[in-house]
Amino acid sequence: MGTVMLLLFCGYSLGIWSGAKLILEKGYTGAKVMNVIFAVLTGSLALGQASPSMKAFAGGQAAAYKMFETINRAPEIDAYSTTGRKLEDIRGEIEFRDVHFSYPTRPDEPIFRGFSLAIPSGTTIALVGQSGSGKSTVISLIERFYDPQLGDVLIDGVNLKEFQLRWIRSKIGLVSQEPVLFAASIKENIAYGKASATDQEVRAAAELANAAKFIDKMPQGFDTSVGEHGTQLSGGQKQRIAIARAILKDPRILLLDEATSALDAESERIVQEALDRVMSNRTTVIVAHRLSTVRNADTIAVIHQGTLVEKGPHNELLRDPEGAYSQLIKLQEANQQNNRKGDGNARLGKQMSMNKSASRRLSRDNSSHHSFSVPFGMPLGIEIQDGSSNKLCDEMPQEVPLSRLASLNKPEIPVLVLGSIASVISGVIFPIFAILLSNVIKAFYEPPHLLRRDSQFWASMFLVFGAVYFLSLPVSSYLFSIAGCRLIRRIRLMTFEKVVNMEVEWFDHPENSSGAIGARLSADAAKVRGLVGDALQLVVQNSSTLVAGLVIAFVSNWELSLIILALIPLIGLNGWIQMKFIQGFSADSKMMYEEASQVANDAVSSIRTVASFSAEEKVMDLYKKKCEGPLRTGIRTGIISGIGFGVSFFLLFGVYAASFYAGARLVEDRKTTFPKVFRVFLALAMAAIGVSQSSTLTSDSSKAKSAASSIFAIVDRKSRIDPSEDAGVTAETLRGNIEFQHVSFRYPTRPDVQIFRDLCLTIHAGKTVALVGESGSGKSTAISLLQRFYDPDVGHILLDGVDIRKFQLRWLRQQMGLVSQEPALFNDTIRANIAYGKDGQATESEIVSAAQLANAHKFISSALQVSFSNLIASRDSLSMQSARHQNLLLSEVPTWEKKCRDMTQWLESVELSCQEGRSSAWPSPVRS
């Protein structure tokens, strides 16, 4: 922009010099030269008003580059492609023919080398083997998530690549080991299995998957929201929803990746019976870790290091005592014997003690329930708090005062002062332009000898002021950009620090989903810069333009200045109304885009589930629907803004007309001179241009204020369970005695569902206690309460006789190690993930020792070029097997010796060879 204005001033200098020459040599009049100059002036002013939009164009181009790079990328496996074969139906015969494959992210680590396997139609085959042998990769290749580098995958004798991808996936049903649910209702999640499913079909699928019973107990039944990634449901409940989704699809090929691993014994039996009915006359591929679930399979295939080593029915494979399958069976039996010999089950009765009155009450309450159901009765005199008290307020965020943002920029005050000085210099240039031009007009009507002298002088002045503007504007932009960027960084750090210290309950609410929080951290924090960075620069620059213009105008002629200024409030009123309209629309639009962002976040993070159910169009339709509101709002805002700007310029030109009329009258009355009229008019015109440029910032300013309110709503909220607080007691030694005293609890987002009623449970130090029961009975909730993810509504949880709410929360959690059913690893190196067990301060030897203890060191340092420096892929990636994820999660725990270990179904989804390795590795660390 500085270069543009330098060229503009040079153009004026050239025009003045040329105009004077034409007047002297060719008889041109001053009026003709003035017409040309004012025509150029009008165009240049319009160009100056468009300058704020040029930055928006540049930003749009930068943002569009990556977007169009993604849009124009031709996927190797295109789900939208309409080319390919479509048959009337398929029988379901599958064949792997000399397949060679390695994951694109690890090309040096081959999974299959010449793998071949034939699966007859209508049969059930179970794939067994050690972790990393390639079992789940078979599923990925059948679903065509990847294509083999060499070899072929055939269905009914046809290469999988020849089929239309969407059509062939519609014939395949997948139930993964880690169930993936979307942030929608239970009915909508099940309906992903069939685009036009009726409510009756959805319910029938749920009943077949043994899910209808617990769904009916939900507050809204099938319309109950499952939360982000299904956080409102237990692991078993999520798995049954995923099974119902696959049943609804009615596929010819069914792929089960340990589909019943997360269910309790009774639910597993019922669901397995349902699956047996569904598998009838279908080709079924089962990836199994627990061999007890595959005995009835037609064929069992043992895979070792990407090679098929054995294949046959269960009884036939057992005939070879030295065979791979027999060895796995022996490993299973040895593991079960070790479990039976363990002290845990032998002393279970001694570890768990309930008071006698509670036991009697339980026995009475159990009379009408199934034998394994353990509902806790509500004692007299204990009142459960109303769930509504736990709900977060849905109040609109309070507007953030500008002084607060300014205080955050306090360290950059020297930078802002220097930037303001540069902005003031560039701002006063335009009012001075009025003095220069009015003197040029006067010179055009002077005698030739004065015209020649004055024209050269004023042409030189234009060059000087153009050079000053050229230097001051870049300096101002640079300094304000530094202040703005540092403010954004500071706000993002503050917000993220607050987010990670929020209680878990806060994340259960849809408005606080990962997509919405991500949008606030990225987009909203950047928008706040509109109040400090470039916007503040323009405010300072235009304010100096306004003040300088008023001073020059009043010094030249105060009467004409007052007449012109009397009409200015009309423009200001119009701008104020426009700003208020835009401010309201921008807040609504931002909230709507958060919903669309959440849909995109769910779809991308669960892309394999979306692909397996051919739900790309369904997700796109939902995303389009979420974007329709912001689109309509944007159109409405554009129309109102356009009308506002139109009225603004109509009033501006009305002011011009009135100004010239009043000036002519004053000249006629000899109260001023012709050059002074132009000086007043041009000075106030430049001041008006400054105001007009500032009005173009109202849209960005309103968005920035809305974004600041959204950001500081998080920053100002006090976490109800804050791990950053230093308040609370600590203990030099901790034995590990745990006691639940008359605990009653309901999840805040589901206040109508009682989880615990007067739960009493004692766990002695150094003992191992197993919590068993129906899916959704509260087993995992006990872990959540012990870790203080939530606090009980009534009752107390004691650790060594002290209420856990009295302990310093960070210290309390440092005494515990948690291994969840679904391992959560960060997108970082293996070394960094293990080091999280000791606040990232673990030494290399501690990391290696923890990995060895968790049976993870072998695959980390194997010859397959995996190392502690390897990056771990995203949560939905299959590039690292779930068992290895679990190994790494276990190795986080012993990095720092814990007094309490929380194991939430941590072996359910792990194959036997890894189970034995982990169980044998934990005799000493497991205390309670």
UniProtKB/TrEMBL annotation:
Residues 94-330 form the ABC transporter domain. InterPro entries: AAA+_ATPase, ABC1_TM_dom, ABC1_TM_sf, ABC_transporter-like_ATP-bd, ABC_transporter-like_CS, P-loop_NTPase, Type_1_exporter. GO terms for cellular component: plasma membrane. CDD domains: ABC_6TM_Pgp_ABCB1_D2_like (cd18578), ABC_MTABC3_MDL1_MDL2 (cd03249). The chain crosses the membrane at residues 413-437, 457-480, 562-582, 634-657. Keywords: ATP-binding, Glycoprotein, Membrane, Nucleotide-binding, Repeat, Transmembrane, Transmembrane helix, Transport. SMART domains: AAA. Belongs to the ABC transporter superfamily. ABCB family. Multidrug resistance exporter (TC 3.A.1.201) subfamily. This is ABC transporter B family member 21. It comes from Zea mays. The lineage of its organism: Eukaryota, Viridiplantae, Streptophyta, Embryophyta, Tracheophyta.
